[in-house]
Amino acid sequence: MAWILGFRTRPGLDAARARSEAEGRLAGFRAAEIVLADDASGAVLRGVDGSVGLLLPLGDGWIARRLPVSALSWSGAGVTARLDEPMLRTAVLPLAVKPLWLEAAA
To answer: pTM, whole model, 2 decimals?
Structure first.
C-alpha cells in the first residue's frame, strides 16, 4: 500500500538538494557549508550567519530543524544532535570526518 501511495524509498540527498530543502524549510536560512552524512541519510548545514540547520529523513521527504551549535557533539560515530523534542530526542548522522567549522565552534 505504501508503494502505491508513492512512499517508495528514502529520497536521495546531495549537496544541492540539502541546500534547497534547508533553505526552503527554515525561514531566513542561507547555507554556507553543507556536510552530508556518509550514507546520505541527512545533512548538517552551517548558515552564513553561523546558525546550524539539520536535515533528517521522514518518510519519503525531509524534516529540517535549526539548532544552536551547542546542541551538536562529535564522536567517532559522527555528529549527534540534541533536539529535545518529545518524539525525537537525539539524531546521529554518520560522518567519518569531523566538519572543521564544528571543531572551531567547540
So the answer is: 0.82
